[in-house]
Fold this sequence. Notes:
Blueprint: E1 4-8, H1 14-22, E2 30-34, H2 35-41, H3 44-51, E3 56-62, H4 66-78, E4 83-87, H5 92-102, E5 111-115, H6 123-130, H7 136-149, E6 154-156, H8 162-169, E7 174-177, H9 196-202, E8 206-209, H10 211-214, H11 219-230
Parallel strand pairs: 1-2, 1-8, 2-3, 3-4, 4-5, 5-6, 6-7, 7-8
This protein binds cytidine-5'-monophosphate.
Cytidine-5'-monophosphate (C5P) binds next to strand 8 and helix 10.
Amino acid sequence: MGKDVIIACDFASAAETFAFLDKLGSDRPFVKIGMExxxxxxxxxxxxxxxxxxxxxxxxxxxxxxxTVKKAMAVxxxxxxxxxNVHAAGTISMMEAALKGLTxxxxxxxxxxxxxxxxxxxQASMEKDLLIKEPIDKVVMHYALNAKRAGLDGxxxxxxxxxKVHETCGKDFLTVTPGVRFADSDTGDQxxxxxxxxxxxxxxxxxxxxxxxxxxxxxxxxxxxxxxxxRD
Length: 232
Ligand code: C5P
């Protein structure tokens, strides 16, 4: 696996999700589903996407005591998602427990990646609300290294951080990067963006793309353009 486009399916229902995916014709892209859709539709949405031939990044960002996360991950592992994630802030022990819970009897498991500091957290809120006084870039790299030490496969980060993450954690440590826009499209609420081609050059392993594809007049063409710009 690697070097692929993941479509962020930020929809509120299965009906909306499949109406969108039907527009892509015979393509069966890698999709990301998050809390909204998962809480609305439950595990059935993952089973259905898998049955239709999609790979699934289940973006639930688990963060709890290690034992709880381990048990929850054992359940998610049975759903056969391809990528799942946790908050690195849950500590190395929690990430190790997540990995144990995910690993099936035959040793196989979904990829496990970590969220470092959310992009909605800035230096000021980190200092004021979380009492973390270090520079945010240092905190992000520290969390990435913690994820690596715990045995995780990679992290979610900005494509602008991908090169640094690979330098710090190794070239095989996956960088899954949202914040991607076409050169000629609206950036919307994303502040720091790269095009798919720039993200590829920067070393992103997977780009997560939502609205540039889901809100495009021709989503199939937008998806293909994204793949052409990004894949080797
Ligand atoms: O529509 P857009 O391309 O901005 O969607 C990006 C997706 O990636 C959304 O699902 C968003 O929640 C997610 N994401 C992000 N930035 C992060 C982590 C996740 O944009 N740091």
